[in-house]
Design goal:
The chain has 304 residues and is an alpha/beta fold. The chain contains ten helices and ten strands. The radius of gyration is 18 Å and the shape is globular. The relative contact order is 0.16.
Length: 304
């Protein structure tokens, strides 16, 4: 599998992101290897918090939250999904499928051998991360999700998502930093927008980023639909603490929190919250507040 790797100098002196890089190689599914980058802060003996980003962001999205977890005594681990951040980027759009993304991250998680995980996922971080949770529930102590879903194609998606799907494939220039900025209520400084652009020195590196919206199941016969239905079957019996912390201003995932609250067994009776003043990328808009919500949830919910 041909893949691209963003030069290290693109990540030098990014604002608010002092974290040392870490890398693991995983099978690419075609006899070769892919390098996955991750942030790993805090004591290796501490309870781990796994933070998975979505599209088209990378672990930079968690720079405001990671210090809060470390200060609270936890280990914060934030990988870059394949073809994002400092992780390798398969060059051909045909190399990207929903299942391959899950397989790549499952291989990474198996090699990390994390246990007793508190998981947080937003956007595609939820779609992929919840598949990891349901693949091996015993690894996880609790789950928090925000501005995400686990679609099966059996129900309509929002018009905002359909517009995003159309834009991602038709726009001539996929301006990642501008796209992230447009998904925030706050006005991002130019240097922060540039940091979101850092992993993508040219359009050839963005092939996977453009593809992700097309991998979301919007019809019942989508290849990913059976896998997500199976995952829902596990979630409906998932007894461990499950919290929703959606923002109040995301047009793409609006009301998605109610689905989790209704269907996931471990969501019953939890202190679900709405993060006010955040749009799709609430980690950017209200990162410190979101981290406090998760830390308080962890402190108040001993593992099952």
């Amino acid at each position: 599998m041909k893949s691209l790797r963003t030069p290290d100098e693109r990540f030098k002196d990014l604002p608010g992101y002092p974290f040392a890089p870490h890398y693991l190689d995983v099978p690419d599914g075609e006899g070769d290897r892919l390098r996955i980058h991750y942030v790993d802060e805090g004591s290796r003996e501490a309870e781990p918090v796994l933070l998975i980003h979505g599209e088209p962001s990378w672990s930079y999205l968690y720079r405001k939250m990671i210090p809060a977890f470390v200060q609270a005594g936890y280990r914060a681990v934030a990988p870059d999904l394949v073809r994002f951040g400092r992780s390798d980027k398969p060059a051909d759009h045909k190399d990207y499928t929903d299942q391959r993304h899950v397989d790549w991250m499952q291989s990474w998680l198996d090699r990390m051998d994390l246990k007793g995980i508190s998981f947080f996922g937003q956007d595609w971080g939820g779609l992929i991360g919840l598949r990891l949770v349901t693949n091996d529930p015993d690894r996880f102590a609790r789950v928090v999700v925000a501005n995400t879903g686990l679609p099966t194609g059996d129900h309509p998606v929002t018009e905002a998502f359909l517009n995003w799907r159309k834009f991602s494939t038709e726009t001539l220039e996929f301006a990642v930093g501008v796209i992230v900025s447009g998904g925030c209520t706050t006005s991002l400084p130019a240097e922060v927008i540039a940091a979101y652009d850092a992993p993508f020195p040219d359009e050839s590196c963005k092939e996977g980023a453009r593809m992700f919206p097309l991998l979301v199941p919007i019809t019942p016969d989508d290849p990913a639909a059976p896998h997500n239905r199976k995952a829902w079957g596990v979630l409906q019996k998932f007894e461990k603490p499950f919290l929703t912390a959606f923002s109040d201003g995301d047009p793409i995932t609006r009301w998605g929190d109610k689905v989790f609250q209704k269907l996931v067994l471990g969501a019953k009776g939890q202190p679900h919250t709405i993060i006010k003043g955040g749009r799709h990328f609430l980690q950017e808009d209200r990162g410190e507040e979101l981290a406090r919500v998760i830390v308080d949830f962890m402190a108040g919910t001993p593992p099952v």
